[in-house]
C-alpha cells in the first residue's frame, strides 16, 4: 500500500530542505566566519559555502534557464563591455576547463591572465563535492564523477596527476570501500510493494557478474511468477552454445546487431517478467535502458548470457581497482583550483585536500592572474580580428569580455547556440552528441545500524527510480577519516538515470525523454522516493523514516555522461570523421575541450581533451 507523505516524514512545519540547510550552516559556522573575515573583492559578500548546500543540486535552479532560453530562440539585450582584458577565457569550470587553464599557463606562462566562467554556483562540473555537517563529524559524498580509472591514463594525464601529487597506490592503500559485488556484505536486491506486490529484500543476489553454476537459491525468493523463476533458473543451468555452427564473424555480426533483451528472449528463454529484473541494471553504468544495448554490450557489462555463446564469464579474474577520494573526483577539481588560485586555500595539498576549507571569496579577485567566476552563464562566443569576445549573463544582465584565446569546455550540444558562426557541418556534428542524463542522490543517515542488522551495504532496486544504492564509507584519504566500522552518520548514495516512457524507442529519444522527466521533477519528488524506499526496505530493521534521515542532496545532471557510440545506434565512422572529431575542430581562436570531444565519459578523457585543445592555440 502506498504511504502518505505524513507517514513518510514529509510533514514538518519547515521543509526538510530548509531545515537541512539551516542546521548544516550552523554546524559550519566557524568556516563561514573565516571566509567572511578573509573575503575581499567581487565575492566578499558570499556567505554560503556551496558544497554544504542540500536539496536540489547538480544542475540546480538558476543554472540552466538562460541556456534553455537561448536554445529556444531568446534574444538578450546588448551587452555591456567590461574593462577587463585576458589572455584566455575558459567557458566551463569542470575538470576539463580547469585542466585547460592549467595547461595554458604551462604553454603561455604563469602570468597569463585567465578568466574561467561557470554557470553553476560551484566549480568542478560533474565532479561536485557534497559535504554534510549534520549529526556529527563532517561526512563527504559523491556529487557525480566518482573514481579514477588510472589504468587507462595517458602519459599526459599521468604527468598532471603526478604534478598534483595524486598517486593511485596511496589512494588505494586505505580504501575499504567497494561498489557492491565484493563489498563487505555483498550485493542484495530489493523488490518493492508498489511494483511487485510485496516488500522483500533478498541477500546473496548473484545474477550479475557471476559464474554459471553458483547457487540459484536467491531466485526462489523473488516475488515473481513460477514461470519467470523457472526461466531464470533454466538460463543459468544452460550449458550449450546456442550459436554453435556459426563462424566467428557471423557470431560477431549477430551479437552487435540484436538488442540484449531480444537476444535473451530468442536464445535465452526469458520472458518479459524475468527480463524486468535486469531492465534498469545499466542505469548506474551506461545510464540507458536495457534495450539500448546490443547483446555483446550487455554481456560485457556484466549481464548474464556469455555462457550461451560459448564464452566464459571469468569472475575470478575480474578486478576493478578503484582509486578515489572521499568526495570522488571533486578533490581533483579542488587541487586544480588551488594550483590556479593558491589564495583560495593556502597550504592545501593532496594530503589534506579533503578537509581543506576553500574561501570562495578568493576565486574572483582582481589581483589574481586566474579568476573563476561562478553564476556566469555564457550566451555567445565569437572571433574578432584581434582575438575572441565572450558574452555572459551577470545577475541576468549581459556583459562582454575579450581575450586572445577561448577554450569552450562546455558540452557540445550547446555549442551551436553559443557559437552561431561555426560551419554548418561542425554544428550538426555537435548536435549529434546528446548527453546522457544522470542522477546521484545522497541521503545522510543517522547511522548504518539498520543496514548492518540486515547484512547489506549495496542494494539493487529494479522497480524504483534509482537502480542502485550503496553505503559510502571506508575511504580515508586526503586527510579525511571514515572507516567501515564507524557507527555514526553515514551517506547512502542512490544513483542511476530515470526511465523514459515506453514510447521513447531510439536511444536519443530515450535520453531526451529522461532529461525532460528529470527537469520536471521537484526536490520533493526525489525526497518522497528515497523515503519510500528506506521505509520499506529498512523499516523492518528498526529504521525510523521520520528521524533517521539527517539530510538529502539530489545531484541531478540532465546533461551528464558524454555520448559514447553504441553498436545498435551509431555507424562506424571513418577515421577522423566521427561526430566528436568534427565537433571539436578549432574555430579561429576558439577551441573545444570536455569529455564530449573524446566521446568518452571519463575524467582522464576530459583532461586529455583539455591538453589537445590548448595545444591547438597559436
Could you list some keywords that capture this structure?
single chain; alpha/beta; 8-stranded mixed sheet; 21 helices; 29% helix
Structure description:
The protein is an alpha/beta fold and 618 residues long. Helix content is 29%, strand content 17%. The chain has 21 helices and 17 strands. The chain has helices spanning 16-27, 29-38, 65-71, 95-108, 155-164, 168-173, 193-196, 217-220, 226-237, 248-255, 260-266, 272-275, 295-299, 330-340, 415-418, 424-432, 449-454, 507-520, 523-538, 579-583, 603-615; strands at 55-58, 80-91, 114-117, 129-132, 139-142, 187-191, 200-203, 370-373, 376-383, 388-394, 397-408, 436-445, 458-460, 468-471, 490-496, 549-561, 590-592. The strands form 3 sheets. Strands 1-16-12-15-14-13-6-7 form an 8-stranded mixed beta sheet. A hairpin with a 7-residue loop joins strand 13 (458-460) and strand 14. Helix 4 (95-108) packs parallel to helix 14 and helix 4 (95-108) runs parallel beside helix 21 (603-615). The radius of gyration is 25 Å and the shape is globular. The termini are far apart. Mean pLDDT is 90; it is low at 13-46.
